[in-house]
What we know:
alpha+beta; Hypothetical Protein Ta1238, Chain: A; two-stranded antiparallel ribbon; 6 strands; transferase; Corrinoid adenosyltransferase
Amino acid sequence: MAIYTKKGDKGETGLLGGSRISKDSLQVACYGTLDEANAALGVAYSQIENKEIKSIIRDIQKQLFVVGAELASDEKGYSLLKEKISGKDVTTLEDIIDHYEKKLGPIHEFIIPGETTASSHLHLARAIIRRAERLIVNLSKTSNVRLEIIQFMNRLSDALFMLARAEVYYSMVEGIKEKVIEKIRMGKTSHELTLEMALKMAKVAERKAAEIGVPIVFTAVDASGNIVLLHRMKGALLASLDLSPNKAYTAVALKMATHELAPLIQPGRELYGIQVSNQNKIVTFGGGYPLKINDEIIGGIGVSGGSVEEDMEIAQAVLTLFEEERGGLH
């Protein structure tokens, strides 16, 4: 069967149901714009790696065909439709919006498209959907357009906005993971944090903690974030058994003290949202420090049990010992 039929050579096109209509009519503009949006979504789909977002986009593309079919139908064609957009579809979009808003948090400034190629195409699709919505609202003034379609189009642009934000977030997380994996692939560093050194640091941490009067958990990890030693003082908080090693892991994974992360995770900053990455192992308050020899990270420490200030004070005592002893590491 030939792609071309020559039936549209006079500027008309056929509707589902058999009647013909001018190609520059408002009705054709409505479903034609949906086709345009679907194409933009296809580009985004081909670029996105996150399976959850890809699945949502594919479902949306199928729903746009459903909306388009209804808008491209005459009275007879409408009666032949087997599937129509319903209130349930509107609710599904609202659930998507709520899910990602909860995950990503509120925004406090306008978002300029362009952070990733895929998110840019999602923003493009969102803008096209907005245009389609305006056309459909205009069509509803002279033709019978169901309320569910108008509602669906309104929610869809918001859903695409949230998906664009999610795409940027997941791309950032994957970038961080790749850096961590690359560090692990590099193998052992030229210096190693030994168990002997970790034990010395644990003794200093316990002595300083006893001096302050707070029982703590002290953790030392190697350059790959693996635990070398975990030491728990009697009476230390159970929560510290998670926080201490996670602080040490964070310091190694991000190559910085954990208290330095706080300003970087605020909305709009470069590491916003990282605290929920890496299986929620990232800690963004004080008590975790990387251990360095000549700018080479050989491990990290984490202290948890007191206030943030107390944890940092104890950790500083450990770092002092490390500075004195690091010449003996090999």
